Amino acid sequence: MTSEELLTVLTGLGHPLRLQIIGELATGRVHVSELARRVGVSRPLLYMHLERLEKAGLVEGRLELSPDGKAMKYIELRPFSFTLTVSTVLAALHADQEKGHSRAGDRSD
Amino acid sequence: MTSEELLTVLTGLGHPLRLQIIGELATGRVHVSELARRVGVSRPLLYMHLERLEKAGLVEGRLELSPDGKAMKYIELRPFSFTLTVSTVLAALHADQEKGHSRAGDRSD
DNA sequence: TTCATCTGTAAGCTCTGACTAACAGATGGA
DNA sequence: TCCATCTGTTAGTCAGAGCTTACAGATGAA
């Protein structure tokens, strides 16, 4: 795991609303509009946060057809487990060098 | 651990430069000016990042006198270990309610 | 005294993450 | 038809994290 991937997870979880979203999804999958109502935010805003969670691989969206024929996008939690220690960080920084990234913040692609 | 504390750690680690700082400190304590040189940033900027790391409890600063009488602020890593799972998040959200932190979307059941 | 090093902070700029308002398209039902 | 629901996107505002420049004070050595 590179530091870039690690950072995607860290900053992905690093927002109160996104923690709340994780909390809501813990009990089962929910479609977007319903989720927006539950956490009390607008849909466009929710989309933005979901995008970050999805990029971090913490959440997954699936478009389905409801019984009454309406398109519904269901969001579900992807089980995750990360250990945060000094070793984790060192491993990430080391993985960067293997990939040719000389420093944590470098962007060559 | 409340979600606020969890977020302090997540956003505390959630920056490339701060990961790099952790990496530098892993081999041993370093004083501020030297650390700034190693990670290649200005001292004022480093102070800002150190402040965040310190608030998250990941790092500790100690002012000491060098052999030649100069004041030196040594930064050292505080060993940490956090597990990031859905349960962690749920526990944090639960801890919030115990503390009476109410939000807009809170349920009272 | 002057220089080089260390400490610490304040003022300001920039850029992006966070957020709102408004749009456009599709479906089922009254 | 019109209304209610769902989907998705764009344009724009705003606040704060991130960063730079500049300051001020202390020490030891030349």
Structure report:
With 109 residues, chain A is of the alpha+beta class. Helices cover 50% and strands 19% of the residues of chain A. Chain A has helices at 3-13, 16-25, 32-39, 43-55, 86-98, and strands spanning 30-31, 59-65, 71-77, 81-85. In chain A, strands 1-3-2 form a 3-stranded antiparallel beta sheet. In chain A, α1 (3-13) crosses α5 (86-98). Chain A is elongated, with a radius of gyration of 17 Å. The two termini of chain A are 17 Å apart. The model of chain A is unreliable at 101-109 (pLDDT under 50). The A-B interface holds A 3, 6-7, 9-11, 13-16, 19-20, 22-23, 26, 38-40, 77, 79-86, 89-90, 92-93, 103-105 and B 3, 6-7, 9-11, 13-17, 19-20, 22-23, 26, 77, 79-86, 89-90, 92-93, 103-105. β4 of chain A pairs antiparallel with β4 of chain B. Chain A binds a DNA duplex (30 and 30 nucleotides) through α4 and β3.
What topology emerges from the helices and strands here?
2 copies of one chain form a homodimer.
Chain A: H1 3-13, H2 16-25, E1 30-31, H3 32-39, H4 43-55, E2 59-65, E3 71-77, E4 81-85, H5 86-98
Antiparallel strand pairs in A: 1-3, 2-3
Helix pairs in contact in A: 1-4, 1-5
The structure holds a DNA duplex (30 and 30 nucleotides).
What key attributes describe this structure?
homodimer; 109 residues; alpha+beta; 3-stranded antiparallel β-sheet; 5 helices; 4 strands; 50% helix; DNA-binding
